[in-house]
Amino acid sequence: MRPVNVDAVKDLIRLCVTNTASIHVVTSGAIRIYDESMPPIDGSDGYVASKWAAERILQNAASSLGLEVHIHRPLPVPFEGGGRHPAWSDVVSAQIVIVKEELINIVRAMGKRPDFASFSGYIDVAPVIEVANSMVEYCIKQKACEVGADVTEYEGQIRLYVEDFASLIMGDEELRGLQSMNPLFWFAEAKKAGLGQLVMAQRLVMHVKGDEVVARR
């Protein structure tokens, strides 16, 4: 993840040092778990570690070089009391149904399904168009940062549990018979196929021979 999330940020800084352009970078709300510590350097939390490093580099550039830096952080769905289900309204419950239908339509359009057989966990999403509009509105109304980098956060709206999505697929004979693929790769292809949801956060756990591998963002 270093070339995409770290080296690219360094290149942006080099470009902006020579002009007055401000820097806008999307990171990850998952870095907040390392507010009081450093992420592991062994690659076990590579995505989050690379986003953490990118934010530190941006903050240093803002303070030492006087660059105008704006960090945009997608966040998980806000929960009350840490429980499985937040205080969802009927409107949000309806949105969950719509998102599930959209995912099933993407499965049909792709002719491939995510294989959740060895996975558990969840994915938090929000409509791409809403998040994009919020970012554009921020950019239009932005003010110069007085000190350091400015951080703006965007909350996820819908939490999709792996077992719920998997049961929808496996309960449909047509979908069950489609070619299966790793869920992480499937979601990457689903974005290209027109998925209208932005992944705001995730915690996918892959169970392999008694061990757990966590993909977090």
| Silhouette | globular
Question: pLDDT below 50 for ≥5 consecutive residues: which ranges?
Answer: none
* Share of helix, binned: 40-55%
Provide the spatial order of strands within the biggest beta sheet: 6-4-8-9
**Average pLDDT reading:** 88
Count of individual helical segments: 7
Largest sheet: 4 strands, antiparallel
The span between the termini is 12 Å
Whole-angstrom Rg: 19 Å
SSE sequence, one letter per element: HEHEHEEHEEHHEHEE
Account of the 3D structure:
The chain is of the alpha/beta class and 217 residues long. It has one domain. Helices cover 43% and strands 25% of the residues. The strands form 3 sheets. Strands 6-4-8-9 form a 4-stranded antiparallel β-sheet. A 3-stranded parallel β-sheet has the order 1-2-5, sandwiched between helices. A two-stranded parallel ribbon has the order 3-7. β1, α2 (46-65) and β2 form a beta-alpha-beta unit. The longest helix has 21 residues, at 90-110. It starts with a helix and ends with a strand. InterPro entries: FAR_NAD-bd, NAD(P)-bd_dom_sf. This is Thioester reductase (TE) domain-containing protein. It holds the Pfam family NAD_binding_4. It comes from Sclerotinia nivalis.
What layout of secondary structure does this protein have?
Layout: H1 2-17, E1 23-26, H2 46-65, E2 69-75, H3 90-110, E3 112-114, E4 119-127, H4 128-141, E5 150-155, E6 158-161, H5 162-170, H6 173-176, E7 179-181, H7 183-192, E8 197-208, E9 211-216
Parallel strand pairs: 1-2, 2-5, 3-7
Antiparallel strand pairs: 4-6, 4-8, 8-9
Provide a quick synopsis of the model:
This protein has 217 residues and is of the alpha/beta class. It has helices at 2-17, 46-65, 90-110, 128-141, 162-170, 173-176, 183-192, and strands at residues 23-26, 69-75, 112-114, 119-127, 150-155, 158-161, 179-181, 197-208, 211-216. The radius of gyration is 19 Å and the shape is globular.
